[in-house]
Amino acid sequence: MKRYERSSSLLTIMLITALLGGCLGGGSRPAATFKLTFIVLNDATKMPVEGAVVTVIGESMATKEADSQGRVSFSGLKGTIELIVCATGFANKTQTVAMDKERSLTVHLTTDETAAVIHSTDDLNKALANNGGIQHPFGG
Hints:
alpha+beta; 22% helix; 2 helices
């Protein structure tokens, strides 16, 4: 009978320990993280925007540049994040994403009508001439 009582007492102690461990967070797992993959495209041409800068803001912040296919991937994300996508000649795009599963998105950037892309001195002079008569800072 004593052997049965010892076994019963040991079993009771183990059961209470397991229950308290689970209730008090002793058995909790780290929060799941997920991967976000997306492609940045020019909305007008549907072509990839190589070099677009993508920033993810959430529990932490990360910035990456789109490859020649316009692809960008981030891993280890959780919770709600904010995406900011920027590229020369395009309007910035902001998007909120709930990272509760693996996600693949496509971001379409539109051209920024107020931006001037300068490739030469002539382009610079034209842009300045169209900007309320502002003069070229280096003369000419």
